[in-house]
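The authors assume throughout that readers already know how a fold can be written as discrete tokens. What matters is that the chain and its backbone geometry are given together, residue for residue. A single example would do more here than another paragraph of explanation. For illustration, here is how one protein appears when written out as sequence plus structure tokens.
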Amino acid sequence: MRVMRARNAGFCMGVALALHKLDEAVAAAPGRVATLGAIIHNPQVLAEYAAKGVRVLHSADEAEPDMTVVVRAHGIPRKDEARLSAIGAAVVDATCPRVKKAQISIAEATANGAELWLYGDAEHPEVRGLLSYASGPKRVFATGAEATRLRDALSPDGRAVLAAQTTQDRPMFDALRKDLVAAMDNRLIVLDTICDATRRRQQETLILADQVDALVVVGGRASGNTRRLADIAAGRGVPALLVETGDELEPAFFSSVSVVGLTAGASTPKSIIDAVEQRLLDF
């Protein structure tokens, strides 16, 4: 069986930067470092940092004055930033620069009270953070039907700002944007917040799916961008298997596969991708 590996698989710039900042914090204050939420969505990486003594806080209220708190790559809500400051913890902001740019853009675009329409997963930590930067009403949607309802509910003289979670599906967002702009014209401001690395990874997955018999996506199941890669392949009619490690691969799945594609989410370490590739080559 031949393996075709995506060039853009693995850590994106934002994840690599966040982990670099966490490493620096651990070196500077061993045993007194925590992250507010999971620094990235990869259980193997989180286990490595837990072994180094890094705690994962589930609330800003758990922070302590003598603690260094590293902000997760997805960013955090403004109220949590304020709470950490009030407690007196040393804060290291490891928010992905693309997410930070989206936060600032949303704050500026909604300063006049315009509604924020955010295309994304309402339960994702990045989305919760982005919403906190909107000054006016804010809504999260995930389908074209939901977008239409938002448009119809807006007052005739109302204005809205359209943005997206940075790891959302680019073609779907572009289709939604086109329909909304056509219906609303100058009452809608569109922010380009989807990360270029996400776009390249998704486009590469589309191309790869047309060249293989099956696709393996490596990454944490809690990672939205990882799940989306598997969904893209499935949408092309290609069997897609999402695994966190090579131990989850079953030979039976590949019994009739001559060429398998291999890609990975933005928070998947190269070492795990390499191990999965070797396991596939051994079948």
About this structure: The mean pLDDT is 96. The chain has three domains: 2-10+196-282, 13-96, 98-190. The first strand starts at residue 2 and ends at 5. DSSP finds ten helices and twelve strands in the chain.
